[in-house]
Amino acid sequence: MKKLILMVNLLQQDRPENYPILQIRPPRIIIVDNDKVLCDRLSEAFDELGFQHRIYHRVSNITPLAEDFTPDLVLMEYLLPCLNGGELCSQLRMQQHTCQIPIIIYSSFPKAFLAMNACSCDAFLQKPFSINALLRTMNCFLKCCSHLRSNNAILPSFSDLN
């Protein structure tokens, strides 16, 4: 059975208010990307939202990093210096403790990503993307994570992160 990958059209600038705001503990996010500018932008946005996150620029084995940090979601660039995002995604899918972690891969080259057709990620975003588009995609997966405990905290508005 072929897995359906959620593709997000980032040319449509939907308003973030149209998407439910998570009422959970701050999610833990792993970011794998060698683009320092994008990593800084993501880190700034995640810090503002109170997300816990770790950034890695060069990864050859993501499994121990995920087992140590226990992320709720993994974000990664497809084109990376050591292994590509598809190979890192496969590493996570092969381990019992990490196989259910939602993975969002992004790239400026969607045709190269789609040509591989072997990646088992949950979503793909085409770069460039807005922080709001990324957060909407993340919310789709984070709100379904049954291992997240609820509390009364409401995440701040995403409107001023663009």
Overall pLDDT, averaged? 76
Distance between the termini: 38 Å
Strand order of the largest sheet: 1-6-5-4-2-3
The main sheet comes to: 6 strands, parallel
Chain oligomer state:
single chain
Shape: globular
* Rg (CA only): 15 Å
User: Which superfamily, in CATH terms, is the homologous superfamily?
Assistant: Response regulator
Commentary on this structure:
The chain is of the alpha/beta class. It has one domain: Response regulator (Rossmann fold, 3-Layer(aba) Sandwich). It contains 5 helices and 6 strands; from the N terminus they run ββαβαβαβαβα. It has a 6-stranded parallel β-sheet with strand order 1-6-5-4-2-3, with helices on both faces.
Summarize the helices and strands and which ones pair or pack.
Elements: E1 6-8, E2 28-32, H1 36-49, E3 52-56, H2 63-69, E4 73-77, H3 85-93, E5 103-107, H4 110-116, E6 123-126, H5 131-142
Parallel strand pairs: 1-6, 2-3, 2-4, 4-5, 5-6
